[in-house]
Design goal:
The protein is of the alpha+beta class and 103 residues long. It has a domain of 35 residues. It contains 2 helices and 2 strands, in the order E-H-E-H. A two-stranded parallel ribbon has the order 1-2. The two termini are 25 Å apart. The mean pLDDT is 72.
Length: 103
């Protein structure tokens, strides 16, 4: 990325305030939700926030454990979570309409 530098931007006041998320066990879940979001990544967390802010009861299911800011860091290009669940691989060459093996 053009101009990318890992680490704090000059003048930054430090890491953001940590979120205190209400984690639940299976027996603590409600019987019904208006929406269920699978995955708390960039898209899932934004979708869940928008739905919850509109007044819906939202359940977010995430298979990864909660990592604090100091565990994840700001360097998303070298973040250790990228390879944990195989996200560092692209689609298979065979059978994917978005890839080709000849130029």
């Amino acid at each position: 990325m053009i101009g990318f530098r890992p680490g704090p931007v000059s003048g930054e006041q430090g890491p953001p305030v940590e979120a205190d998320l209400p984690l639940r066990t299976l027996d603590q879940l409600q019987d019904r939700y208006d929406a269920v979001v699978i995955g708390a990544g960039a898209g899932g967390s934004v979708a869940a926030a928008v739905l919850a802010e509109s007044g819906m009861r939202v359940l977010v299911i995430e298979r990864g454990r909660w990592l604090r800011y100091d565990q994840v860091g700001r360097d998303h290009l070298r973040n250790h979570r990228l390879s944990k669940f195989g996200h560092n691989t692209g689609p298979d060459l065979e059978g994917s309409p978005r890839t080709f093996n000849r130029a």
